[in-house]
């Protein structure tokens, strides 16, 4: 009989891990709280730096899990630790006995309304990176007119690298996401002026620097180094954005039709209850704490519990997929070595 491996989360980490575990001869069981697979990636339009359609990437991952047991609209109701296994009760009433749990619970986006100075939820023309991706997918958002904005801006690091927001960490993908979205808006509306307000540009990934240079050279996106200090609305309903250009040492004031806030990555709060039932430690950044951050990032401090993807911190898509494969192999070796 094939060994059950319970995977909590049906995003790209959970899907890739399930695919690898199927190839290794196990019975992966995916528990996903939403009504779809693919997590945040399924809600994105295109992926940097190659502009790959997100739906193609998700479809490829889903195709590798056709033999897995998948429960959508389902969460972990309760976990009971047995002698050498776990009894998992799901919210759909099903009980599963397994010796292995894989957390692939992903992340949440910072609630941009908490940064009141940016006006999200106050001014109609302020939206988040997720809102803009939804518009790319659906073509509908009343904040974006059919003819497009004359001028728009992106604010980096919203809820990231911010002690007041209780998140001092870099969200890793916000800079490159802003560059991607800025390029996409220029492709749709070439006449629009597009600004990016940033603290530091962190273009660490393969081809990311080329992507950034292309945004400036080929699309005319203007990058201003400095935090936005205030967003207000004029009598015409347009946004007045104030910042300081720290490179020139001069204040900047621009009038925009649309402002996009790059909400940072924070730990998925939904995992806290299950983590608490298993006494799993939470790291200082609010994410699940790995055994260590160098050699054993996919291992927890508890027997039979593994991690993959953004449940332990911000990750790119390639990093998430690599961790999922590593976790699957780690589970395989753990079982082969007699669960030691």
UniProtKB/TrEMBL annotation:
Keywords: 4Fe-4S, Iron, Iron-sulfur, Metal-binding, Oxidoreductase. The keyword Chloroplast does not apply. InterPro entries: FAD/NAD-bd_sf, HdrA-like. It comes from the Bacteria. GO terms for molecular function: 4 iron, 4 sulfur cluster binding; metal ion binding; oxidoreductase activity. It holds the Pfam family NAD_binding_8. SUPFAM superfamilies: FAD/NAD(P)-binding domain. The keyword Ribosomal protein does not apply. This is CoB--CoM heterodisulfide reductase iron-sulfur subunit A family protein. It comes from Candidatus Cryptobacteroides excrementavium.
């Amino acid at each position: 009989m094939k060994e059950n491996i319970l995977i909590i989360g049906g995003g790209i980490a959970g899907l890739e891990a399930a695919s690898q575990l199927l190839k290794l001869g196990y019975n992966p069981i995916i528990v996903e709280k939403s009504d779809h697979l693919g997590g945040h990636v399924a809600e994105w339009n295109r992926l940097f730096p190659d502009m790959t359609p997100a739906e193609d990437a998700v479809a490829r991952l889903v195709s590798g899990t056709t033999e897995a047991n998948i429960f959508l609209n389902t969460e972990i109701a309760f976990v009971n630790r047995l002698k050498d296994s776990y009894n998992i009760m799901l919210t759909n009433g099903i009980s599963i006995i397994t010796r292995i749990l894989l957390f692939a619970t992903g992340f949440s986006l910072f609630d941009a309304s908490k940064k009141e100075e940016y006006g999200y939820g106050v001014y109609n023309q302020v939206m988040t990176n997720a809102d803009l991706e939804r518009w790319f997918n659906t073509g509908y958002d009343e904040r974006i007119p059919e003819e497009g904005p004359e001028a728009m801006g992106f604010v980096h690091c919203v809820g990231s690298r911010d002690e007041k927001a209780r998140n001092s960490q870099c969200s890793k993908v916000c800079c490159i996401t802003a560059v991607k979205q800025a390029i996409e808006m220029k492709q749709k509306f070439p006449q629009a002026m597009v600004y990016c307000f940033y603290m530091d540009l962190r273009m660490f990934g393969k081809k990311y620097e080329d992507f950034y240079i292309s945004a400036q050279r080929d699309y005319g996106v203007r990058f201003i180094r400095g935090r936005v200090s205030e967003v207000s609305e004029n009598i015409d309903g347009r946004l007045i954005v104030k910042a300081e250009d720290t490179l020139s040492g001069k204040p900047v004031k621009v009038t925009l039709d649309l402002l996009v806030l790059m909400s940072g990555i924070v730990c998925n709060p939904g995992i806290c209850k299950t983590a608490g039932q298993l006494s799993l430690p939470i790291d200082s950044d609010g994410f699940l704490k790995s055994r260590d951050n160098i050699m054993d990032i996919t291992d927890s401090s508890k027997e039979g519990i593994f991690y993959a993807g953004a449940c332990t911190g911000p990750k790119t898509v390639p990093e998430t997929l690599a961790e999922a494969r590593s976790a699957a192999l780690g589970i395989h070796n753990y079982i082969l070595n007699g669960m030691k």
